[in-house]
Amino acid sequence: MFAYYLNLAIRSFKRNKALTLLMIVAIGFGVAASMITYSVFRAVSGNPIPDKSAQLFTPQIDGWGPQQNLQGEPAEALNYLDAMALMRAHKAKRQTFLYQVQLSVMPNGQRDLPLSANGYAVTSDFFAMFEAPFRYGSGWSAREDAARASEVVISRGLNQKLFGGADSVGRTLDLGGHDYRVAGVLDPWNPRPRFYDLFSTSGFADEPDIYVVFSRAMDLHMYPSGRNSCRGQLTFTTWEQYTQSNCVWITPWVELDGPAEAADYAGFLTHYAADQQRAGRFDWAPNVRLRDVVQWLDYEHVVPPESRISLAVALGFFLICLVNTIGLLLAKFLRRAGEIGVRRALGASRREIYTQFFIEAGTIGAAGGLLGLLLTAAGVSGVGILFQPQIAKLARLDASLVGLTLVVAVAATVLAAFYPVWRAARVQPAWQLKSS
Amino acid sequence: MKLHPILAALRRHKAGVVLIGLQIALTLAIVCNAIFIIGQRIQRIQRPTGMDENNLFMISQLWVGAPTGDDQGSTDKLDAMQRTDVQILRNLPDVQSAIAINSLPLINSSWTTGIGMKPAQERETAHAALYFGDEQMIPALGLKLIAGRNFNVGEIQHMGARGHNRPPIVIVTRTLADKLFPKGDALGKTIYVDRDTPSTIIGVVARMQVPSVDSWARDFTYSSVLIPTRLDANFSRYVVRAKTGRLDAAMKESRAALFAANPMRVIDDEDGVKSFSDIRANAYKADRGMAILMGVICVILLAVTGAGIVGLTSFWVGQRHKQIGVRRALGARKVDILRYFQTENLLIAGGGAIAGILLAVGLNLWLMQHYEMDRMPVLYVLAGVAVVLALGQASVFVPARRAANVPPVVATRTV
């Protein structure tokens, strides 16, 4: 029966080529526009570390006070004094402190020009907390943190450039005039959005090249190469004055298991801020936050506005295409009222009519889906006109998007067909036979 | 023509009428908002920086093994290296002028600060971006000095990137001058640039955009302060104007000349040497993309809606074939039939347009609430209404003419 109805549907398309083509094109464009914008939206709004996002928290402490803070919200990073206090207190199972650095890689035997390397100064738990995958070696331990060791973890890309991709663990690297020992080499690793540094990046920067020991960076007076935000008059000139200032530049992260631990940690932060108030360092009531990864991504507005607007417009466009399809299907089905009358008079049940016309609509939807797939493939490679390259390359046509395109096209068309099919099934056989 | 028969007929096609009306309403809502967005983005893309952008390019470079301290010795060394580089660039055959500057419009790397009228003022009077450079800054960038004078060579200082000494004189943009001194008498007045030291305004330039094009800088797009100080850091930016038509050659030879003079530096292969037209294209990439996307969606949307009207009206014409024949047989002229369908479409499209106006305003309000959109002027809605009504009339014309061509003899065939 299915094959027969399919055959009928194809005959019907042939009778009304223009109308059929119009429906297919409308559905194709509508579904493609939605899928292209959705592929970008999915990429930018995804959870970069789904299995741990509820355990990772970034503490914030207001060191600026009600006059200078972000309309009641504490700064998005910590100043040196507060960061050091949290680091020493070590109230979480794991914790890491990080900020962006830029260093030049001195020429070695293979190259005669220096390179610039971007990355982070981090503490040892960084790699385990954020599940960084190692190709060779590993990160460093708390012992190296305490020893202020000259250790570095490098990206696979930098390892390729400097050591030709070989296992370089233990080799020496000259960064900015100081020697570092390579402790590990990462596999390609660039979580997007880069949840761990939304202070200096918008979440979609290129993969970092290096990770150096935080305490060593302090010893070398490595100023942050990323963002640095200060309040009031700037009076510092030297590194010591800088670390005493209210400038924020260090992003802290802690790993906490479950709500009870999170509540304890939040209590600790409040307690710490209250102590600072008592000591006279803050002359305002404790104002602290403890946000997990998802809350942090949301608070930092990681999804670019272009992504939301274009998705909304594309969905509106798809809706209009569907309204259009309802109208055209209605015209197409009711034009065949006579044919329906004959079938009903010869004994076809309403159910048969439903089946026949739903199959016809589904076929149109499938054809529209195929066209939509072609347009989506073309469009996904063209999203570079709207988004920065780092975001544009996140949009991919993978198996799930292919499946989704077809399913959405067929489902939406069948949904749109409900009213026209219902009207077709209500055709009165006697009336139709009499009038024709 | 009486509307009554048309309305009576429409009542028998409720579903079709509602569908066309709905489609027109949604199309109107999206099209006029999309055109409004396109207009706004184009306005943004076309706003001038205030510089003469022709033949301009920027070099960003990082010293390797240069002093990193904040002491006088280090800054003096860095200053000497920077001045050597600028001299090398100025001596190149294809280069007209070259300067060192901390930032440039549209590159999104800025030093912004509050400007006050009194020392240690609690709330800033205005917010502005700072440009640090020497007396060549104004001529090399092609800025227009509209009042006062430029800096003299003797007034130029230099300091480390984290230095605080502010020189006693500054040049400001007209926008900033008007904001600080609404009476227009800014020249010679004293302002406080992010600390206690007073600075006298010695000149006003017509326009100089701030480095950021992001939304946070939209309240002070043209509020800039030029400061007669070279900043000495372990990285530097040079802005070079090539001789007319020699941009590519000048960009190539600049990179080579800098490396020849001192190889201990990093100039990024892709972004290290960049023409200003590339900087501009990159800064407004998302705006241009949004305008193109909205344009494409508008065109497809109007085409789909138009085709939908053609399809549904054709169906109605086919359905009423006999009635049209009867009307013709009873004396209706071709033009009466044509008018009938045109009026019918006008009624449906008009109804849809009224609903569409409400939807369009609602969509605009929603966008304003969520995406820093401005209020859409009524003109856009009216233009949108005109477009959808014209689209309806154009699409109905083909099936309506077919209806008008139905011969009266149809009436005599089997009824």
Q: Short description, anyone?
A:
The complex is a heterodimer of chains A (436) and B (415). Chain A has 436 residues and is an alpha+beta fold.
Written description of the protein model:
The complex is a heterodimer of chains A (436) and B (415). Chain A is α+β, with helices and mostly antiparallel strands and 436 residues long. Chain A folds into 2 domains: 2-45 and 304-435, no CATH class; 56-299, no CATH class. In chain A, 50% of the residues lie in helices and 15% in strands. Chain A contains 16 helices and 11 strands. In chain A, strand 7 and strand 8 (178-186) form a beta hairpin. The longest helix of chain A has 31 residues, at 350-380. Chain A is elongated, with a radius of gyration of 31 Å. Chain B has 415 residues and is α+β, with helices and mostly antiparallel strands. Chain B has helices spanning 4-11, 14-46, 72-90, 137-141, 174-180, 247-261, 276-283, 285-319, 321-329, 334-371, 378-404; strands spanning 56-63, 95-100, 112-116, 126-132, 145-148, 157-160, 169-173, 190-193, 198-205, 224-227, 229-232, 235-242, 265-266, 273-275. Chains A and B meet through helix 2 and helix 11 of A and helix 2, strand 13, helix 8 and helix 10 of B.
Give the tags.
heterodimer, A: 436 residues, alpha+beta, 2 domains, eleven-stranded mixed sheet, 16 helices, elongated, B: alpha+beta, six-stranded mixed barrel, five-stranded antiparallel sheet, 49% helix
